[in-house]
Amino acid sequence: MHNHSLHLWQHQHSFGQDVVKSGERRTLIVILITVTMMIVEIGSGIVYGSMALLADGLHMGSHSAALGISAFAYRYARKHAHNKSFTFGTGKVNALAGFSSAIMLIFFALAMAWESTIRFFNPIEIIFNQAIIVAFIGLIVNAVSVFILGEWKHEEEPHHNHHHDHNLRSAYLHVLADALTSVLAIAALIAGKYLGFNWMDPLMGIVGAVLVSRWSFGLIRDTSRILLDKEVSDEIQTAVRNAIEEKDDNRISDLHLWSIGTGIYSAAISVVTENPKPPEYYKELLPKVGIVHITLEVHKCKH
Questions:
Q1: What is the pLDDT of residues 7-50, one digit of tens each?
Q2: Is the Cβ–Cβ distance between 77 and 96 less than 8 Å?
Q3: Domain end marker among 193, 227, 261
Q4: How far is 151 from 23, CA to CA, in rounded Å?
Q5: Which of 93, 100, 171, 299 has the fewest CB neighbours in a 10 Å radius?
Q6: Structural domain of 165
Q7: d(C-alpha 260, C-alpha 266), whole Å
């Protein structure tokens, strides 16, 4: 066989990672919005003495850095999509970015909790009117950002299995956390102004830190499953197994199915049968669940 004929059995391993994703464009827009509001809130928090407002601004700062990681991951995955040193393409780059962003979220949540605790014992004077106005502006900006990035929740794959872009999801959680801290800052400032509950300001900082940490751990759990090649859901594995075993006398003796990117999977399958057929026959039987790279071996069973 001539080498030039091999291309008939070869395929690219980019698996769509070379295409600009909508999440990349939306992330860049939100970065510009977030950085601008971060500068305003940090400056206002210092001038007006609001810990809740300052925490919100610092939180936006952390999210600006995290969103930067997301934007870099999109670009890196796209630029190196055809790099053959990536065995299964660059799909996991986005999961790695989501994992890194989640770690950042946890550290900044701890910083918020620590600073808020200090303010419990060392309160400072708060200029409520100006702080409330800035907090409302921050909430509006965060709400717009949440809307821009919110489409990740609607992405589904066949068999009702979610295949979220974890990089986009991390960006979404960052701006959602910003929106939450804005709401808590407003509640704390209003309570302080009209009820004299100045202790609400640092308390809301702690509450926000706890909620953000919970979101972060969820993202760490989901992205680590991809990074560690944990098998995909039982539902997809069952669909693959049934598709092959319902035909003839086929039995699957070994099945490995793992995620190599957003909604795309690689599979290694061993089929045992009395009447072996070409591998292409069994590949055609597989359900359309996003399996883009298949290694399949067929064994003849005489019994």
A1: 444 455 545 555 556 677 788 888 888 888 788 878 877 787 76
A2: no
A3: 227
A4: 9
A5: 299
A6: 3-227
A7: 7
Domain co-membership, 88 together with 149: yes
Q: At 233, give phi and psi (nearest 5°).
A: -60, 150
The whole-chain average pLDDT of the chain stands at: 77
Instruction: Note whether 207 and 246 are same-domain residues.
Output: no
Same domain, 291 and 198: no
User: If you ran DSSP here, which 8-state letter would residue 267 be given?
Assistant: E
Boundary (domain end) residue, out of 180, 212, 227: 227
What is the structure's pLDDT at 32? 86
Q: Give burial (CB, 10 Å; 0-12/13-18/19+) of 240.
A: buried
pLDDT tens digits, one per residue of 188-199: 888 888 888 878
Nearest to 67 by CA among 110, 109, 97, 95: 97
Percent of the chain surpassing pLDDT 90:
0
How many Cα atoms are found within 13 Å in the side-chain-facing hemisphere of 151? Answer: 8
Q: Are residues 138 and 168 in the same domain?
A: yes
- The CATH number given to whatever domain includes residue 44 is 1.20.1510.10
The enclosing domain of 269 has a CATH number of 3.30.70.1350
**What is the tally of structural domains in the chain?**
2
Q: Mean pLDDT over residues 169-179, rounded?
A: 78
Q: What are phi and psi of 208, to 5 degrees?
A: -60, -40
Q: Report residue 124: phi and psi, to 5°.
A: -125, 165
